[in-house]
Amino acid sequence: MSPQLEVMREQIVALLPRLRRFARSLARDPHDADDLVQIAIEKALAKHEQLHEEAGIARWMFGIVKNAWIDEVRARARRERLLTDEAAGVTVADPLAPAHVDALAVADALARLPDEQRLAVGLVLIEGLSYKEAAYIMEVPIGTLTSRLARARTALQDMLRGSTGDTR
Amino acid sequence: MSLSDEILMAYVDGELDEEKRASVAQAVATDSEVARRVAQQRLLRASVQAAFSAVLDEPVPEHLVRAARSAPAGTTVADLARKRAANARLRRLLPQWGAIAASLMVGALIGARFLGNSGEGVLVTQSGQLIAHGALAHALTDQLAGSQAASAGVQIGVSFRAHSGEYCRTFSLRRDPGGASALAGLACHSRGDWHVDVLARSAPDDAGAYHQAGTALPSAISQALDAAIAGEPLDANGERAARERGWRP
After folding, report:
1. Which is it for strands B123-126 and B167-173: parallel, antiparallel or unpaired?
2. Quick check: B44 and A11 in contact, CB under 8 A?
3. What is the pLDDT of residues B167-185, one digit of tens each?
4. Per-domain residue ranges for chain A?
């Protein structure tokens, strides 16, 4: 096995916490999020020759997670047209600490955003990437990214105000 | 000076060039309304970030580390599209498998032969499909591979998530100790039932004992597993979590 590939594998291992966080911002369910990461790892390794040095492995991996998520969203939409999901809408409420409630409210609000807005929030606000990097990963012009981000923020602000009754 | 929301967001995100940044900073210092809007944007950014920061502190699941270190590299393997196609092929084969299984072993006989004489069958047919029943259904729903009694009539092998999103588990049905043959199968959970998609005879090893892992599975089962599996088998925690979710995708 090439030393280069070995290095890449360890770089992916080092990125796992961030990839999991990014996936969690896209797929609400932690298991689904980890499934996305797993699929991304397999895809990345299967086409590891396509990584260009200048692109950087983090950006490359985020892009693969994004694509895996989009595939999954589309597949899910197809399935849901075919059958009703019995599990949908079933949530179990745990007793929650206030900080946890806040985090849940944010995650709930995020989950209600349109997919492309959620992606912008995940990359810029959660992962802290620059507009340029985020636009590259989303394969859109920077202007498109910034307007999605602005709409997402306004919507989040409104939802979070509504959910907590807090006008800040 | 009126500043758009987009400019203030870019300011908070550190995306303005030096000249613009300085002019917004100036406005923040002198205009309380601008200061309030910037504070609101900062608070939102911080809340969103904080809501997900705990993920970084979670231990990374072992199966992901394993995938990164040892998933096959190159374009000839791990091709998901190919796996999906194989999975679709498998599904087309299923009615046939079901028919073979049903003709080989009929209803309650299976229960009597493989699970002592409780009298209750472990497989029933329902609109052409083989469904786990009785002790087999209970074991598939409740039994964890890590903590099952070696003497249990049903041994659970590998649990995993299929490309279809369903949870699937391999199982073996034990015959009397020292019996010459046993049954192994693959069942997937859908709408409250375990569909037995593949069923095959397996020979117990020399000691008549049971293997739990995939190694002892008849090739028909392990091939079906390879075709259906999405990612890695569930580890003990994943198995327990899936059980708690009622094996719902």
Report:
1. unpaired
2. no
3. 999 888 765 544 445 677 8
4. 1-90, 94-168
Q: pTM score, two decimals?
A: 0.53
Residues B159 and B49 in one domain: no
Q: When comparing pLDDT for A79 and B28, which is higher?
A: B28
- Chains A, B: CB pairs < 8 Å: 132
Nearest CA in chain A to B71: A42
Q: How far is B221 from chain A (nearest CA, A)?
A: 23
Whether B40 contacts chain A with CB within 8 A: yes
The number of domains in chain B is: 2
Which residue range forms the structural domain that includes residue B40? 5-57
* Residue B87 confidence class, pLDDT cut points 50, 70, 90: low
B15 and A156: CB-CB below 8 Å?
no
Q: In this predicted structure, what is the pLDDT of residue B165?
A: 85
Q: Which CATH class is domain A1-90?
A: mainly alpha
Complex prediction ipTM:
0.80
Instruction: Give CB contacts under 8 A, 24+ apart, made by A140-149.
Output: A145/A120, A146/B6, A146/B9, A146/B10, A147/B6, A148/A116, A148/A117, A148/A119, A148/A120, A149/A117, A149/A120, A149/A121, A149/A124, A149/A125, A149/B9
Shortest Cα distance, chain B CAs vs residue A66, angstroms: 16
Domain identity same for B118 and B235: yes
- Please indicate whether residue B50 or residue A22 has the higher confidence score (pLDDT): A22
Q: Is residue B64 part of a domain?
A: no
Q: Is B58 on the interface with A (CB under 8 A)?
A: yes
Six-digit token string for B8: 């203030």
Residues B158 and B118 in one domain: yes
Give the residue with greater pLDDT, B230 vs B151: B230
Closest to B159 measured CA to CA, from B179, B175, B174, B145: B145
Interface test with A, best of B17, B53, B64 (most A CBs within 10 A): B64
Per residue in B15-37, pLDDT (tens digit) is 999 999 999 999 999 999 999 99
Contact A153/B37 with Cβ under 8 angstroms?
A: no
Is the same domain home to B35 and B152? no
Shortest Cα–Cα distance, A48 to chain B (Å): 7
Confidence of residue A11 (pLDDT cuts 50, 70, 90): very high
Indicate if B107 and B221 belong to the same structural domain: yes
Kindly state the average pLDDT of the residues B206-222: 51
**CATH topology for the A94-168 domain:** Arc Repressor Mutant, subunit A (1.10.10)
Same structural domain, B162 and B230? yes
Tokens at B76, concatenated: 């000839």
Q: Establish if B212 belongs to a structural domain.
A: yes
Q: Which has more pLDDT, B46 or B110?
A: B46
